[in-house]
């Protein structure tokens, strides 16, 4: 079969007046071939071969859906249900030729952006190791569409609070903002609707006004619109996270920022012809200036101090002075700290717990110990006053302590009162007699002292 290009050359030579013999000699082909080419039409439709199994396409399409795209199972079901024996090669050719398993590949377009024209933001879940535990972290990314400068941060979860924290950090990292920030149709930023009809949440819309930036949601199922931020996620997962472990979320974000500074933003890109940092220097002058004073980002929660002297926030508990038990307080949640106010008075400030649940954070001085102070170690004051005056009294004191509860402080106090109330001779005489008979009842000891005291005082 002669090539189409050679057929066109034969026709061109014939139009220029060359004879068939001369054309055959020049191209080293037979004159019959030259005649056949000149007699055939200039344009011929490409031959299309149809399979003899094409009549069974509706059955194959239905079975392909039921068998979840498994052609081996489709071939088996064709034999079982419909008694059709189709060779596997013919079956796979039919599926490919009629594009039954996957849609046709569409032509890709290209987006071009001027410096300072657009930002793109998105998130992606990644598995990572924090404090020895494998957890799922939400990777938030922000990219300048012109220079491809990338900023990433990780969060245990990603709500509107974390989104505002991230965007404030990201815009500060970029050194400015753009009039437009393209996002997907996530409910974190979008309140209702999608695409061009999306309505942003009030707090996110207010955040955009502060930075003179408008959030724009792309059309549903059109992630290529923000391909600048979609593409780096695979690079982050396979380069930054590969082989790395982290002590906590703060350590994770410190390493992520260092990776942005020294790896991804310094790597030259072919379509740019330079690194993102070099392109950012050209784009920086076109960025919108950030506000002179950025408002603090926090969320406020009213709380009542529980019976144990704690306030609850995000499954964890933070201490306040125990004098506020049962009182209403206001808890302000920042990204890295928790602040508690009672009225206008600051009563507590704690580092925020990001990893873990049901944990307690207690500041020194907030709570007094619930148990009593430890008993005084060593001899009591009563024992010190009674010891060392007489060996018989020391023996009686030791035996009395053995028969008393605890340190026997009540008994020793009573014995000291007896010693101070009665004369010395009757007192020690009673002690000796009590030791002889093993009497340690202080009421009986007092009677013995009174008996010995009879006649001691000479009254006129």
List the defining traits of the structure above.
single chain, alpha+beta, Nucleotidyltransferase, domain 5, 5 domains, five-stranded mixed beta sheet, 17 helices, 14 strands, 17% strand
State the shape: elongated
Gyration radius, to the nearest Å? 46 Å
Overall structural domain count: 5
CATH class of the largest domain, named Alpha Beta
Structural class: alpha+beta
* Helical residues, percent: 25-40%
Gist?
The chain contains 17 helices and 14 strands. With 460 residues, it is of the alpha+beta class.
Commentary on this structure:
The chain has 17 helices and 14 strands. Helix 14 (391-402) crosses helix 16 (424-437). Strand 11 (328-333) and strand 12 form a beta hairpin. It is 38% helix and 17% strand. By secondary structure, it is α+β, with helices and mostly antiparallel strands. The strands form four sheets. A five-stranded mixed sheet has the order 3-2-1-4-7, with helices on both faces. It has helices at 4-15, 20-27, 31-39, 57-66, 71-82, 88-97, 160-174, 202-210, 227-230, 232-240, 249-262, 276-283, 381-386, 391-402, 409-421, 424-437, 442-453, and strands at 118-130, 133-144, 150-155, 180-183, 190-192, 199-200, 214-217, 299-304, 310-313, 316-319, 328-333, 337-342, 345-351, 360-361. It has five domains: 4-39; 54-97; 118-286, 2-Layer Sandwich (Nucleotidyltransferase, domain 5), CATH 3.30.420; 299-361, no CATH class; 381-453, no CATH class. The radius of gyration is 46 Å and the shape is elongated.
């Amino acid at each position: 079969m002669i090539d189409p290009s050679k057929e066109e050359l034969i026709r061109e030579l014939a139009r220029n007046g060359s004879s068939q013999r001369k054309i055959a000699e020049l191209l080293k082909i037979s004159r019959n071939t030259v005649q056949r080419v000149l007699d055939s039409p200039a344009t011929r439709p490409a031959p299309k071969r149809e399979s003899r199994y094409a009549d069974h396409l509706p059955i194959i399409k239905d079975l392909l859906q039921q068998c979840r795209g498994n052609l081996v199972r489709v071939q088996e079901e064709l034999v079982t249900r419909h008694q059709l024996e189709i060779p596997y090669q013919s079956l796979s050719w039919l599926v490919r030729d009629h594009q039954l398993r996957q849609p046709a590949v569409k032509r890709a377009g290209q987006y071009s952006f001027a410096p300072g024209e657009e930002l793109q933001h998105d998130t992606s879940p990644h598995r990572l190791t924090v404090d020895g535990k494998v957890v799922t972290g939400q990777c938030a990314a922000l990219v300048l569409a012109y220079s491809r400068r990338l900023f990433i941060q990780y969060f245990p979860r990603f709500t509107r609070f974390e989104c505002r924290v991230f965007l404030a950090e990201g815009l500060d990292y970029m050194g400015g903002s753009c009039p437009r920030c393209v996002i997907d149709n996530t409910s974190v930023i979008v309140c209702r609707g999608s695409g061009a009809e999306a309505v942003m949440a009030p707090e996110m819309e207010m955040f955009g006004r502060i930075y003179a930036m408008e959030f724009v949601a792309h059309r549903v199922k059109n992630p290529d619109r923000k391909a600048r931020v979609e593409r780096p996620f695979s690079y982050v997962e396979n380069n930054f996270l590969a082989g790395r472990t982290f002590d906590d979320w703060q350590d994770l974000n410190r390493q992520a920022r260092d990776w942005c500074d020294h790896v991804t933003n310094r790597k030259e890109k072919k379509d740019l012809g330079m690194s993102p940092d070099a392109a950012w220097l050209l784009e920086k002058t076109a960025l919108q200036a950030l506000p002179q004073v950025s408002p603090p980002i926090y969320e406020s929660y009213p709380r009542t101090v529980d019976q144990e002297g704690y306030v609850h926030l995000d499954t964890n508990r933070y201490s306040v002075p125990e004098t506020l038990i049962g009182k209403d307080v206001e808890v302000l949640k920042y990204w890295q700290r928790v602040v508690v106010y009672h009225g206008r008075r600051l009563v507590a400030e704690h580092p925020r717990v990001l990893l873990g649940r049901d944990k307690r954070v207690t500041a020194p001085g907030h709570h007094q110990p619930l148990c009593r102070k430890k008993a005084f170690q060593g001899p009591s004051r009563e024992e010190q006053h009674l010891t060392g005056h007489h060996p018989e009294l020391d023996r009686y004191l030791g035996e009395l302590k053995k028969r008393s509860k605890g340190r026997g402080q009540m008994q020793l106090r009573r014995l000291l009162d007896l010693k101070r109330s009665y004369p010395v001779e009757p007192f020690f005489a009673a002690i000796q007699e009590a030791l002889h008979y093993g009497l340690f009842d202080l009421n009986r000891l007092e009677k013995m002292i009174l008996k010995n005291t009879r006649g001691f005082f000479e009254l006129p």
